[in-house]
Amino acid sequence: MNRFNGQTAIVTGAARGIGRAIAERLASEGATVALADINEAGVQAAADEIGGASFAVATDIAEPESVTALHSAVIDKTGQLDVLVNAAAIVPFVPWDDLTFEEWRRVMRVNLDGIYLMCRAASDLMRPRKYGRIVNIASNSIFDGTPNMAHYVASKGGVLTFSRSLATELGGDKITVNSVCPGLTDTEGVQESPHKDAFEFVDMLQAIKGTGTPADIVPAVAFLASEEAHWITGQALAVDAGMIRH
Ligand SMILES: NC(=O)c1ccc[n+]([C@@H]2O[C@H](COP(=O)([O-])OP(=O)(O)OC[C@H]3O[C@@H](n4cnc5c(N)ncnc54)[C@H](O)[C@@H]3O)[C@@H](O)[C@H]2O)c1
Fold this sequence. Notes:
alpha/beta, Rossmann fold, 7-stranded parallel β-sheet, 9 helices, binds nicotinamide-adenine-dinucleotide
Protein backbone atom coordinates (compact mmCIF):
# COMPACT_ATOMS: atom_id res chain seq x y z
CA MET A 1 0.00 0.00 0.00
CA ASN A 2 1.09 3.56 -0.65
CA ARG A 3 -1.48 5.42 1.38
CA PHE A 4 0.82 8.36 2.18
CA ASN A 5 2.25 9.19 -1.24
CA GLY A 6 2.87 12.93 -1.49
CA GLN A 7 2.11 13.48 2.20
CA THR A 8 4.21 14.85 5.04
CA ALA A 9 4.02 13.39 8.53
CA ILE A 10 5.53 14.30 11.87
CA VAL A 11 6.09 11.43 14.28
CA THR A 12 7.30 12.30 17.79
CA GLY A 13 9.19 9.84 19.94
CA ALA A 14 10.60 8.45 16.70
CA ALA A 15 14.10 7.62 17.97
CA ARG A 16 12.96 4.21 19.18
CA GLY A 17 10.11 1.92 20.14
CA ILE A 18 6.57 2.44 18.93
CA GLY A 19 7.24 5.91 17.48
CA ARG A 20 10.12 4.65 15.38
CA ALA A 21 8.05 1.74 14.04
CA ILE A 22 5.24 4.14 13.09
CA ALA A 23 7.69 6.46 11.31
CA GLU A 24 9.10 3.53 9.37
CA ARG A 25 5.64 2.38 8.24
CA LEU A 26 4.46 5.84 7.14
CA ALA A 27 7.71 6.31 5.20
CA SER A 28 7.41 2.87 3.60
CA GLU A 29 3.96 3.88 2.38
CA GLY A 30 5.22 7.04 0.72
CA ALA A 31 5.24 9.75 3.39
CA THR A 32 8.07 12.18 3.94
CA VAL A 33 8.44 11.76 7.68
CA ALA A 34 9.90 14.30 10.09
CA LEU A 35 11.18 12.16 12.93
CA ALA A 36 11.12 14.25 16.10
CA ASP A 37 12.70 13.21 19.38
CA ILE A 38 14.65 14.72 22.26
CA ASN A 39 17.27 12.01 21.71
CA GLU A 40 19.25 13.78 18.98
CA ALA A 41 21.68 10.98 18.11
CA GLY A 42 18.96 8.33 18.29
CA VAL A 43 16.53 10.16 16.05
CA GLN A 44 19.27 10.96 13.50
CA ALA A 45 20.21 7.27 13.39
CA ALA A 46 16.56 6.29 12.93
CA ALA A 47 16.10 8.78 10.07
CA ASP A 48 19.33 7.55 8.42
CA GLU A 49 18.14 3.96 8.61
CA ILE A 50 14.68 4.78 7.24
CA GLY A 51 16.31 6.82 4.45
CA GLY A 52 14.46 8.35 1.50
CA ALA A 53 13.24 11.90 2.02
CA SER A 54 12.59 11.43 5.74
CA PHE A 55 14.60 13.58 8.11
CA ALA A 56 15.33 14.03 11.81
CA VAL A 57 14.60 17.11 13.90
CA ALA A 58 15.91 17.13 17.48
CA THR A 59 12.87 18.33 19.41
CA ASP A 60 11.71 18.71 22.98
CA ILE A 61 7.93 18.54 22.62
CA ALA A 62 7.51 20.28 25.99
CA GLU A 63 9.38 23.42 24.85
CA PRO A 64 7.31 25.89 22.81
CA GLU A 65 10.35 27.22 20.87
CA SER A 66 11.46 23.70 20.01
CA VAL A 67 7.99 22.77 18.73
CA THR A 68 7.85 25.96 16.65
CA ALA A 69 11.28 25.19 15.16
CA LEU A 70 10.15 21.65 14.26
CA HIS A 71 7.09 22.91 12.40
CA SER A 72 9.14 25.59 10.62
CA ALA A 73 11.61 22.91 9.50
CA VAL A 74 8.75 20.80 8.14
CA ILE A 75 7.29 23.71 6.18
CA ASP A 76 10.74 24.73 4.88
CA LYS A 77 11.44 21.21 3.63
CA THR A 78 8.04 20.05 2.36
CA GLY A 79 5.63 23.00 2.42
CA GLN A 80 2.81 21.07 4.09
CA LEU A 81 1.74 18.88 7.00
CA ASP A 82 -0.79 16.10 6.57
CA VAL A 83 -0.26 13.76 9.51
CA LEU A 84 0.83 14.17 13.14
CA VAL A 85 1.45 11.15 15.33
CA ASN A 86 2.27 11.97 18.95
CA ALA A 87 4.15 8.99 20.38
CA ALA A 88 6.76 10.75 22.54
CA ALA A 89 6.19 10.33 26.27
CA ILE A 90 7.85 9.64 29.57
CA VAL A 91 6.86 6.18 30.82
CA PRO A 92 7.72 6.17 34.54
CA PHE A 93 7.62 3.56 37.31
CA VAL A 94 7.07 5.41 40.60
CA PRO A 95 5.08 4.03 43.55
CA TRP A 96 2.54 6.41 45.05
CA ASP A 97 4.63 6.88 48.24
CA ASP A 98 7.50 8.26 46.15
CA LEU A 99 5.42 10.39 43.81
CA THR A 100 6.56 13.97 44.47
CA PHE A 101 5.03 17.05 42.88
CA GLU A 102 8.27 17.54 40.96
CA GLU A 103 7.95 14.07 39.43
CA TRP A 104 4.24 14.68 38.73
CA ARG A 105 5.10 17.90 36.86
CA ARG A 106 7.98 16.23 34.96
CA VAL A 107 5.56 13.75 33.44
CA MET A 108 2.70 16.20 32.85
CA ARG A 109 5.07 18.61 31.14
CA VAL A 110 5.95 16.12 28.43
CA ASN A 111 2.92 13.81 28.24
CA LEU A 112 0.23 16.48 28.37
CA ASP A 113 1.80 19.92 27.77
CA GLY A 114 3.77 18.38 24.91
CA ILE A 115 0.63 17.00 23.26
CA TYR A 116 -1.02 20.41 23.54
CA LEU A 117 1.97 22.22 21.99
CA MET A 118 2.27 19.72 19.14
CA CYS A 119 -1.46 19.76 18.34
CA ARG A 120 -1.56 23.55 18.57
CA ALA A 121 1.25 24.02 16.06
CA ALA A 122 0.20 21.18 13.73
CA SER A 123 -3.48 22.10 13.57
CA ASP A 124 -2.58 25.71 12.76
CA LEU A 125 -0.79 24.37 9.66
CA MET A 126 -3.49 21.84 8.75
CA ARG A 127 -6.58 24.06 9.03
CA PRO A 128 -6.05 26.29 5.98
CA ARG A 129 -5.67 23.14 3.82
CA LYS A 130 -8.85 21.56 5.23
CA TYR A 131 -7.06 18.26 5.72
CA GLY A 132 -5.30 16.59 8.60
CA ARG A 133 -4.89 13.40 10.60
CA ILE A 134 -3.81 13.54 14.24
CA VAL A 135 -3.19 10.29 16.13
CA ASN A 136 -2.27 10.59 19.79
CA ILE A 137 -0.79 7.58 21.56
CA ALA A 138 -2.50 7.13 24.93
CA SER A 139 -2.38 3.81 26.84
CA ASN A 140 -4.75 1.03 27.90
CA SER A 141 -3.50 1.59 31.46
CA ILE A 142 -6.03 4.44 31.75
CA PHE A 143 -9.11 2.23 31.72
CA ASP A 144 -8.59 0.34 34.98
CA GLY A 145 -5.63 2.18 36.51
CA THR A 146 -2.20 0.66 36.79
CA PRO A 147 0.01 0.71 39.90
CA ASN A 148 3.25 2.71 40.07
CA MET A 149 2.18 5.16 37.37
CA ALA A 150 -0.58 7.36 38.80
CA HIS A 151 0.82 10.49 37.12
CA TYR A 152 1.36 8.70 33.80
CA VAL A 153 -2.18 7.26 33.88
CA ALA A 154 -3.56 10.74 34.64
CA SER A 155 -1.58 12.24 31.76
CA LYS A 156 -2.69 9.55 29.30
CA GLY A 157 -6.32 9.87 30.41
CA GLY A 158 -5.89 13.53 29.56
CA VAL A 159 -4.53 12.62 26.14
CA LEU A 160 -7.70 10.62 25.41
CA THR A 161 -10.17 13.24 26.59
CA PHE A 162 -8.19 16.07 24.98
CA SER A 163 -8.26 14.15 21.69
CA ARG A 164 -12.05 13.82 21.91
CA SER A 165 -12.43 17.55 22.49
CA LEU A 166 -10.00 18.50 19.78
CA ALA A 167 -11.88 16.26 17.33
CA THR A 168 -14.93 18.43 17.94
CA GLU A 169 -12.94 21.64 17.50
CA LEU A 170 -11.27 20.56 14.25
CA GLY A 171 -13.99 18.50 12.57
CA GLY A 172 -15.21 21.54 10.65
CA ASP A 173 -11.81 21.73 8.96
CA LYS A 174 -11.90 18.02 8.05
CA ILE A 175 -9.12 17.20 10.49
CA THR A 176 -9.56 13.97 12.45
CA VAL A 177 -8.17 13.42 15.93
CA ASN A 178 -8.08 9.94 17.44
CA SER A 179 -6.19 8.18 20.16
CA VAL A 180 -4.66 4.72 20.12
CA CYS A 181 -4.29 2.92 23.45
CA PRO A 182 -1.59 0.25 23.29
CA GLY A 183 -1.29 -2.48 25.87
CA LEU A 184 2.08 -3.45 27.33
CA THR A 185 4.45 -3.51 24.36
CA ASP A 186 7.99 -4.83 24.22
CA THR A 187 10.11 -1.71 23.57
CA GLU A 188 13.51 -0.45 24.67
CA GLY A 189 11.76 1.81 27.18
CA VAL A 190 9.88 -1.09 28.77
CA GLN A 191 12.96 -3.31 28.81
CA GLU A 192 14.85 -0.61 30.74
CA SER A 193 12.17 -0.46 33.46
CA PRO A 194 10.44 -2.76 35.98
CA HIS A 195 7.47 -2.86 33.55
CA LYS A 196 9.35 -5.64 31.75
CA ASP A 197 8.32 -8.00 34.57
CA ALA A 198 4.61 -7.51 33.83
CA PHE A 199 4.38 -9.41 30.52
CA GLU A 200 3.26 -12.67 32.12
CA PHE A 201 0.50 -10.96 34.13
CA VAL A 202 -0.71 -9.01 31.10
CA ASP A 203 -0.71 -12.16 28.96
CA MET A 204 -3.17 -13.69 31.44
CA LEU A 205 -5.60 -10.81 30.82
CA GLN A 206 -5.29 -10.73 27.02
CA ALA A 207 -7.90 -12.45 24.83
CA ILE A 208 -5.12 -13.22 22.36
CA LYS A 209 -1.99 -14.61 24.01
CA GLY A 210 1.52 -13.36 23.36
CA THR A 211 3.83 -10.40 23.82
CA GLY A 212 2.92 -7.17 22.05
CA THR A 213 5.59 -5.55 19.87
CA PRO A 214 5.65 -2.16 18.12
CA ALA A 215 4.70 -3.92 14.87
CA ASP A 216 1.39 -4.91 16.51
CA ILE A 217 0.52 -1.27 17.23
CA VAL A 218 1.54 0.23 13.88
CA PRO A 219 -1.35 -0.93 11.61
CA ALA A 220 -4.05 0.76 13.71
CA VAL A 221 -2.08 4.02 13.76
CA ALA A 222 -1.40 3.89 10.02
CA PHE A 223 -5.08 3.31 9.30
CA LEU A 224 -6.24 6.23 11.47
CA ALA A 225 -3.54 8.40 9.86
CA SER A 226 -4.71 7.53 6.36
CA GLU A 227 -7.11 9.38 4.10
CA GLU A 228 -9.61 6.51 4.12
CA ALA A 229 -10.23 6.92 7.87
CA HIS A 230 -11.98 10.23 7.14
CA TRP A 231 -15.24 9.22 8.86
CA ILE A 232 -13.63 8.30 12.18
CA THR A 233 -12.78 10.97 14.72
CA GLY A 234 -12.80 11.47 18.48
CA GLN A 235 -12.33 7.74 19.00
CA ALA A 236 -10.04 5.78 21.29
CA LEU A 237 -8.90 2.42 19.99
CA ALA A 238 -7.37 -0.12 22.37
CA VAL A 239 -4.69 -2.14 20.59
CA ASP A 240 -3.86 -4.66 23.27
CA ALA A 241 -4.81 -8.20 22.19
CA GLY A 242 -8.24 -7.72 23.72
CA MET A 243 -7.08 -7.01 27.27
CA ILE A 244 -9.54 -4.12 27.60
CA ARG A 245 -13.03 -4.83 26.29
CA HIS A 246 -15.25 -1.85 27.06
N1 LIG B 1 5.57 0.31 25.47
C1 LIG B 1 4.41 0.16 26.11
O1 LIG B 1 4.15 -0.83 26.81
C2 LIG B 1 3.35 1.21 25.97
C3 LIG B 1 2.05 0.90 26.40
C4 LIG B 1 1.08 1.88 26.28
C5 LIG B 1 1.37 3.12 25.73
N2 LIG B 1 2.66 3.38 25.32
C6 LIG B 1 2.92 4.68 24.76
O2 LIG B 1 3.48 4.52 23.47
C7 LIG B 1 4.42 5.58 23.22
C8 LIG B 1 5.79 5.00 22.90
O3 LIG B 1 6.17 4.11 23.94
P1 LIG B 1 7.58 3.36 23.88
O4 LIG B 1 7.49 2.21 24.81
O5 LIG B 1 7.99 3.18 22.47
O6 LIG B 1 8.50 4.46 24.60
P2 LIG B 1 10.09 4.64 24.61
O7 LIG B 1 10.43 5.12 25.97
O8 LIG B 1 10.77 3.42 24.10
O9 LIG B 1 10.27 5.83 23.56
C9 LIG B 1 9.77 7.10 23.86
C10 LIG B 1 10.51 8.10 23.01
O10 LIG B 1 10.02 9.41 23.36
C11 LIG B 1 11.13 10.29 23.43
N3 LIG B 1 10.84 11.45 24.28
C12 LIG B 1 10.70 11.47 25.63
N4 LIG B 1 10.53 12.74 26.05
C13 LIG B 1 10.54 13.54 24.95
C14 LIG B 1 10.40 14.93 24.74
N5 LIG B 1 10.25 15.79 25.77
N6 LIG B 1 10.43 15.40 23.47
C15 LIG B 1 10.60 14.56 22.43
N7 LIG B 1 10.76 13.23 22.57
C16 LIG B 1 10.73 12.72 23.82
C17 LIG B 1 12.26 9.43 23.99
O11 LIG B 1 13.53 10.00 23.72
C18 LIG B 1 12.02 8.11 23.28
O12 LIG B 1 12.73 8.02 22.07
C19 LIG B 1 4.40 6.44 24.48
O13 LIG B 1 3.49 7.50 24.30
C20 LIG B 1 3.91 5.50 25.56
O14 LIG B 1 3.31 6.20 26.63
C21 LIG B 1 3.64 2.46 25.42
